[in-house]
Amino acid sequence: SRQGSSGGEQLMAKVEITLKKSLSGQKENIRESAKSLGLKKIGQKTVREDTAVVRGQIQTIKHLVEVEEAK
Description:
3 strands
């Protein structure tokens, strides 16, 4: 039997998140969610693992971002 990682991490889907609208004037929790995803400027993109935590952060800022499956 093999120990450790068997490459299972590669099966995790990834999502590409693009900030489309300004964070200016948004509530603190919305700005914090964007910051934790690594989004600061309009047009900035980031790729994250498609986990429940990331999905929750996206849900918080869904009106400001565009989400696609990463290629």
